[in-house]
């Protein structure tokens, strides 16, 4: 390949290159030791030196140098792995450049001219290719060549990036390179003649960790189901660890749950994934989580700047993030200052005059007659132009915080409008009932809070674009006053922007979803009366109807989620503090932005956060983790904390304060509060003796978490009802608990949570895959006689056959939809590995494999399930003699034998051996024995009679038997036996055929038409075929085979499935070693 010209000051100081061809301007050289059979030691030393010095000569041992006469400086302009490749470049130089160079008087011009030509060739070669997208295309092209040469992966396997590192084998490090592609991570090392290379598919990675030992201060541990690998000595370990985690996460989401998890469109197209894309996606995921933006938002610009904060009378430094519909700002220290400005609220974005005090200022004006000043923006002109272009592209937006409903309703809609406008009356009624308790305390506390919030609004602004600082965090921890709760929830979640931009959307959803019955609506109806059953608002039809509309409308909007348990509790609380339409958009914000992947069919997001929570316990509460090594109990208890935001475990008014924090901080607030709860009970939990006691400790603690003000309605917890008016002695105040969580665990950031989620999603998905495997084996095991451990091995072989093709296929089906199913080529590959008889004829084996696939493909979707495959294999290895014969019989008649199958050689070549004598017993004795066996089999076949087999099909049946006997120790006896049985069946068929013809002639004389009723087959063969060919039944063939003891012994002989599985694994390993190398190095 052509290389970007690189200077070589000393052309061959160590005599490591041997010149093969030369002229006045170019040298073609070969690396010393390469291709020399008599210089093994030299080759080993040079190879080791190349590997240590990161030389490309190990992969490209040929090169072409540009040399200027009289100069000590040369330039490498081309290299190659084979002499043929380099010779092509040499010939091009000689024919196209060499004669032109002689006309240059200045030799320096020669070098400039040739280098320019080579750079032009490279530009043409890489245009539109992957290397052109990298920061250093030249180096990446070299790494890509090494990757292709070393591992021989399919051409569609795209290299993403690579790192120099060490791979440890025990206490011995192996210096080499780690290559990361879209489906694999691969390592290559060559040192002192020892080559180490292996490939780990991302689908096999179960765990990623950063570890530290005496030998490896910082290392990355990659765990698969078979072994562990440690990699260290990275130049940038943080970057490498992040990229490895991203690629494993993306591959597993794409392979194992592509429809159940949210995956960006760019990541669903592996060919587009580059290192730069991964970096951008990592930032985007962080921005979406930090500002709780819609998943559809695309990140455009990231710029360092400072924003003027009037409350602090100074500029605050941080980072500006721009997306499709938002301007977002976060201070350098996460959480100190957050600013979110929807573009729908922006009137103008303008540049101001730059001064020494205000360099590169930008003014953002919004509809509420406020303006924000940004300074110190690099590339200000381009940034402002891009933001203005997106601003112009927006349609005229609805002014912020304008709530309305369509007035053109039908009679049915008028009823709905009445409910929409009066839903707050539910709250008023319930509040009036509850205010009989501690009314003075409630009024005074709310009044104080309202004044504090009004003061805050006047200083920091009101609306989505308010300055969010640590001060507002303290106000939220105190509990938002009920009069402001709905408004602030809409602001913090930015559900108000969705509401304002979707006029009439909710009302139309309600109308469309009315009268629809499906699984989601049935589940909703079942849970309606379980949602806050003690609250007066949901003890009457009006409240229940509003809840039904919100849940049904959301299920109609997002059928992928539909309805999940705990959504009813959340929607009930939202309805208490917000209008019905507002509650709907709050539910949208929670389910689709704030708790991504929580409400899918397998609750993956919640399980990922439980796994993250376990790691945070080990990190933040090490003493508790030491006392309770198995944290699965605590994580299972805490699952409801995350799914219901503590609403199902805390007294109602205390839980609502937690919801306040959740809308302000996001999921970080639930992590912090969960850690605070465990920390407050650490001593009791450490001394607990079993899981039940730990559960009682946490339940009792949470039941007694109260509030210094009166709750809105009695808690569902009996223990909490006794103390609903005040915090009794010894009870915990929710505000104190929240503040304690902020103080002790406030350093937990959104960035840390997102990084942990990426890693732990790998564990959760692989755990689901293990569970799926267990379920599949549990489903199949009762129907087969294969031992469980062998069935598990067959499952693994099945999966190994499936995954490589899935990596590179363009199918629109998800992995889950195709899981445990093989298409025809995949099935034939596994068939050849596990079929018990020898592979004598490739053509015949291929024919049988095709027929077997057709037979097992019962639903005609061109896919065979694992269950059907296991059942077929069970028949071959553990079935009774009659079951095996029945299977072979079915393979030689329709539907397994299709009309389009063309095998003329079967009819033309004799199947019976011509050099062996044919011994046939007395026909009458054979017939008597056959009739006796036929009578026994008749009862078995009466329920499911098999079609008859004609003459040509029987000949192919015999051919299959011959191929099965080849190589058997009793081969001669078996051939003799099958010859006897074949002659017997041929005679039976002829006798039956003559009888059928005679009967047909008799019937024709009486004027009746021959119906061919003797042939009971359900296929499409004509009556003419039935008349011209004789037929035999399965029972006749089975009875004939039973007369030969050699054949009975052969089919009843035990077969060693274990040995066949071992051979299949070895064969798969060799195939992957040659084509897609396995993780197999020692």
Question: What this model shows, in words?
Answer:
One of its GO terms (biological process) is glomerular filtration. Keywords: Calcium, Cytoplasm, GTPase activation, Metal-binding, Repeat. Residues 396-441, 710-729, 806-818, 902-924, 1007-1026 and 1075-1082 have low confidence and may be disordered. The relative contact order is 0.05. With 1082 residues, the protein is of the alpha+beta class. 53% of the residues lie in helices and 14% in strands. The protein starts with a strand and ends in an 8-residue tail after the last helix. A hairpin with a 6-residue loop joins β4 (62-67) and β5. It folds into six domains: 2-128, no CATH class; 137-275, PH-domain like, CATH 2.30.29.30; 295-394, PH-domain like, CATH 2.30.29; 479-593, Helicase, Ruva Protein, domain 3 (Orthogonal Bundle); 604-708 and 730-748, Cyclin A, domain 1, CATH 1.10.472.80; 812-903 and 920-997 and 1028-1073, Recoverin, domain 1 (Orthogonal Bundle). Strands 17-18-19-13-14-15-16-20 form an eight-stranded antiparallel β-sheet.
The class by helix and strand makeup works out as alpha+beta
Overall 3D geometry?
globular
- Beta-strand percentage? 5-15%
- Counting copies of identical and different chains, the oligomeric state is single chain
Major sheet:
8 strands, antiparallel
Question: What is the averaged pLDDT score?
Answer: 79
List the helices and strands and how they pair.
Layout: E1 2-8, E2 17-22, E3 26-31, H1 40-52, E4 62-67, E5 74-80, H2 83-101, H3 107-126, H4 137-151, E6 159-169, E7 172-181, E8 184-191, E9 194-201, E10 205-211, E11 219-224, E12 228-232, H5 237-256, H6 275-291, E13 299-309, E14 314-323, E15 326-331, E16 337-342, E17 346-351, E18 362-366, E19 371-375, H7 380-393, H8 411-434, H9 439-460, E20 468-469, H10 470-478, H11 482-493, H12 495-501, H13 505-513, H14 519-527, H15 541-557, H16 567-577, H17 580-594, H18 604-620, H19 622-627, H20 632-644, H21 652-665, H22 667-680, H23 682-687, H24 691-703, E21 705-706, H25 718-721, E22 732-733, H26 734-745, H27 750-780, H28 788-808, H29 815-818, E23 821-822, H30 824-834, H31 842-856, E24 864-865, H32 866-878, H33 881-890, H34 904-908, H35 923-941, E25 949-950, H36 951-965, H37 971-1005, H38 1023-1028, E26 1031-1032, H39 1034-1042, H40 1045-1052, H41 1057-1074
Parallel strand pairs: 21-22
Antiparallel strand pairs: 1-5, 2-3, 3-4, 4-5, 6-7, 6-12, 7-8, 8-9, 10-11, 11-12, 13-14, 13-19, 14-15, 15-16, 16-20, 17-18, 18-19, 23-24, 25-26
């Amino acid at each position: 390949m052509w290389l970007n010209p690189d200077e070589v000051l000393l052309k061959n100081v160590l005599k490591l290159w041997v010149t093969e061809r030369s002229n006045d301007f170019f040298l073609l050289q070969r690396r010393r030791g390469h291709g020399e059979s008599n210089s093994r030691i030299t080759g080993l030393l040079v190879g080791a030196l190349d590997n240590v010095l990161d030389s490309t000569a190990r992969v490209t041992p040929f090169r072409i140098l540009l040399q200027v006469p009289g100069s000590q400086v040369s330039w490498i302009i081309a290299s190659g792995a084979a002499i043929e490749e380099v010779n092509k470049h040499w010939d091009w130089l000689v024919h196209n450049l060499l004669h032109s160079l002689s006309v240059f008087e200045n030799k320096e011009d020669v070098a400039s001219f040739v280098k320019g030509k080579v750079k032009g060739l490279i530009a043409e070669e890489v245009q539109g290719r992957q290397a052109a997208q990298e920061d250093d295309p030249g180096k990446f092209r070299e790494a890509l060549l090494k990757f292709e040469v070393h591992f021989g992966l399919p051409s569609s396997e795209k290299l993403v990036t690579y790192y120099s590192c060490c791979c440890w084998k025990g206490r011995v490090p192996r210096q080499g390179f780690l290559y990361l592609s879209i489906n694999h991570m691969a390592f290559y090392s060559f040192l002192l003649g020892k080559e180490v290379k292996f490939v780990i598919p991302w689908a096999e990675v179960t765990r990623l960790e950063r570890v530290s030992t005496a030998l490896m201060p910082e290392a990355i541990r990659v765990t698969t189901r078979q072994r562990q690998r440690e990699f260290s000595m990275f130049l940038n370990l943080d970057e490498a660890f992040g990229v490895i985690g991203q690629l494993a996460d993306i591959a597993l989401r794409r392979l194992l749950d592509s429809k159940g998890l949210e995956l960006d469109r760019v990541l669903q197209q592996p060919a587009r994934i580059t290192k730069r894309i991964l970096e951008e996606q990592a930032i985007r995921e962080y921005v979406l989580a930090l500002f709780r933006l819609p998943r559809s938002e695309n990140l455009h610009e990231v710029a360092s700047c400072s924003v003027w904060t009037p409350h602090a009378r100074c500029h605050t430094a941080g980072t500006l993030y721009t997306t499709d519909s938002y301007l977002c700002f976060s201070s350098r220290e996460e959480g100190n200052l957050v600013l979110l400005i929807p573009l729908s609220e922006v009137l103008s974005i303008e540049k101001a005059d730059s001064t020494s005090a205000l360099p590169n200022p930008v003014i953002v004006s919004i509809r509420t007659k406020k303006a924000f000043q940004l300074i110190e923006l690099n590339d200000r002109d381009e940034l402002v132009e891009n933001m203005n272009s997106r601003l112009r592209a927006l349609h005229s937006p609805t002014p912020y915080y304008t709530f309305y409903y369509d007035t053109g309703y039908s009679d049915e809609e008028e009823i709905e409008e009445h409910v929409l406008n009066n839903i707050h009356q539910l709250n008023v009624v319930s509040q009036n009932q509850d205010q009989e308790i501690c009314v003075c305390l409630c009024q005074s506390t709310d009044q104080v809070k309202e004044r504090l919030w009004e003061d805050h609004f006047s200083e920091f602004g009101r609306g989505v674009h308010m300055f969010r600082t640590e001060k507002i965090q303290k106000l939220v921890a105190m509990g938002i006053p009920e009069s402001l709760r709905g408004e602030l929830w809409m602001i913090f979640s930015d559900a108000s922007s969705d509401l304002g931009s979707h006029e009439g959307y909710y009302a139309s959803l309600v109308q469309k979803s009315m009268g629809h019955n499906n699984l989601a609506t049935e589940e909703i109806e079942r849970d309606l009366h379980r949602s806050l059953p003690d609250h007066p608002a949901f003890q009457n039809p009006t409240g229940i109807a509003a809840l039904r509309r919100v849940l049904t409308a959301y299920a109609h909007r997002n059928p992928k989620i539909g309805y999940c348990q705990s959504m009813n509790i959340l929607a009930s609380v939202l309805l208490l503090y917000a209008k019905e339409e507002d509650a709907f958009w709050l539910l949208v914000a929670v389910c689709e932005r704030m708790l991504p992947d929580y409400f899918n069919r397998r609750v993956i997001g919640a399980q990922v956060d439980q796994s993250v929570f376990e790691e945070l316990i080990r990190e933040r509460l090490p003493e508790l983790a030491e006392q309770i090594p198995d944290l699965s109990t605590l994580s299972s208890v805490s699952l409801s904390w995350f799914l219901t935001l503590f609403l199902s475990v805390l007294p109602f008014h205390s839980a609502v304060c937690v919801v306040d924090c959740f809308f302000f901080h996001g999921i970080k607030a639930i992590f912090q509060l969960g850690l605070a709860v465990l920390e407050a009970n650490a001593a009791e939990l450490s001394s607990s003796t079993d899981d039940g006691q730990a559960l009682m400790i946490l339940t009792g603690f949470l039941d007694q978490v109260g509030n210094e003000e009166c709750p809105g309605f009695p808690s569902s917890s009996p223990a909490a009802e006794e103390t609903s008016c005040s915090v009794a002695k010894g009870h915990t105040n929710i505000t104190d608990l929240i503040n304690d969580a902020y103080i002790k665990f406030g350093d937990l950031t959104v960035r840390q949570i997102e990084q942990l989620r990426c890693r732990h999603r790998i564990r959760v998905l692989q755990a689901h895959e293990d569970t799926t495997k267990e379920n599949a084996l549990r489903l199949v095991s009762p129907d087969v006689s294969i031992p469980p451990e062998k069935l598990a091995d067959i499952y693994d072989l099945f999966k190994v056959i499936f995954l490589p093709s899935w990596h590179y296929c363009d199918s629109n089906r998800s992995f889950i939809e195709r899981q445990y199913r093989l298409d025809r080529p995949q099935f034939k590959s596994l068939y050849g590995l596990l079929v018990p008889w020898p592979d004598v004829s490739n053509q015949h084996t291929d024919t049988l494999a095709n027929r077997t696939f057709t037979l097992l493909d019962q639903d005609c979707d061109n896919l065979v399930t694992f269950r059907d495959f296991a059942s077929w294999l069970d028949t071959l290895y553990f079935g009774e003699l009659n079951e095996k014969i029945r299977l072979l019989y079915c393979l030689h008649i329709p539907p397994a034998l299709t009309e389009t199958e063309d095998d003329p050689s079967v009819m033309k070549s004799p199947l019976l051996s011509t050099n062996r004598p044919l011994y046939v017993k007395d026909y009458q004795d054979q017939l008597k024995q056959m009739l006796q066996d036929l009578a026994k089999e008749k009862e078995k076949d009466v329920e499911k009679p098999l079609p008859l087999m004609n003459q040509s099909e029987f000949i192919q049946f015999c051919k299959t038997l011959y191929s099965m006997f080849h190589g058997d120790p009793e081969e001669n006896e078996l051939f003799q036996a099958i010859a006897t049985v074949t002659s017997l069946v041929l005679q039976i068929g002829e006798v039956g055929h003559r009888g059928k013809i005679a009967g047909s002639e008799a019937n024709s004389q009486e004027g009746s038409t021959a119906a061919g009723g003797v042939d009971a087959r359900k296929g499409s063969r004509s009556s003419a075929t039935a008349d011209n060919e004789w037929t035999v039944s399965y029972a006749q063939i089975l009875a004939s085979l039973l007369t030969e003891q050699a054949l009975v012994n052969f089919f009843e002989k035990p077969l060693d499935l274990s040995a066949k599985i071992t051979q299949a694994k070895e064969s798969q390993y060799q195939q992957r070693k040659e084509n897609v190398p396995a993780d197999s190095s020692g």
